[in-house]
Amino acid sequence: MSKNLELAENINTPVEELIELAANTNDKRVLAAIAKNPNTPIDLLIELAGGRSEK
């Protein structure tokens, strides 16, 4: 298991770290784990649900 996936799944990972992790990964497994984490803030969940905008 990757370190990022472990962080995303850990309920003790701070909110700030979840936000940073989501901003810096395209790994769908990590993003799904962030979405399942009970500490993920609602605004990040909305962003994850809506997908990423292409820049």
The low-confidence parts are none
The residue-averaged pLDDT reads 92
Distinct helical segment count:
4
Q: What Rg is obtained from the alpha carbons, in whole angstroms?
A: 10 Å
Q: H/E element string?
A: HHHH
Query: How can the largest sheet be summarized?
Result: none
**Helical proportion, percent range:** 55-70%
What's the shape?
globular
Query: Between the first and last Cα atoms, what is the distance in angstroms?
Result: 30 Å
**Helix/strand/pairing category:** mainly alpha
Measured by DSSP, the beta-strand proportion falls in: under 5%
Structure description:
The protein is mainly α and 55 residues long. Helix content is 62%, strand content 0%. It has helices at 3-9, 15-23, 28-36, 42-50. The protein is globular. 13% of the residues are buried. The model has no long low-confidence stretch (mean pLDDT 92).
Helices and strands, with pairings:
Layout: H1 3-9, H2 15-23, H3 28-36, H4 42-50
Helix pairs in contact: 1-3
